[in-house]
Amino acid sequence: MFCGLDLLPAFQGLDEEYIELLKPLFEASSYPAGAVVLRQGAPADYFYLVLDGMVEVSFKPEDAPPITISHVEKGGWFGWSAVLGRRKYTSSATAIETLGTIRIHGNALRELCAERPEAAKIILEHLADNVSSRWKDAHKQVKSLLAKGMKNKQE
Fold this sequence. Notes:
This protein is α+β, with helices and mostly antiparallel strands. The chain has five helices and eight strands; from the N terminus they run H-E-E-E-E-E-E-H-E-E-H-H-H.
């Protein structure tokens, strides 16, 4: 359990009630530079928030070398496949410097959404706001993907 959610910018402005629901679902994890945090094609279990350090997200086409998709720094999220309800990660993530994260299991988030749909709506809206602030005009797209991922896994 990671208790400091309310101190993180990603959760600022979210009601204490919802932070309390999320706290027991997050756990801290850390990785040394060079560690593969998640591997393309592996089961999509966790969704990560970077607390310290940086991770490189890459995609490996079948017939070419890996392509760097992005670098995720403090305050950024990666491991979206776990939230979107995909069975496997569609990319890999490697720590390019010592990495501190908190992570949530996709199933745990989906269970929360099924048990507390009113809370899920607000939490997913907050997550979409937090992510889409970095992507111009992406709020609706992110919110739709998150809601669809939650719905698909509940069925």
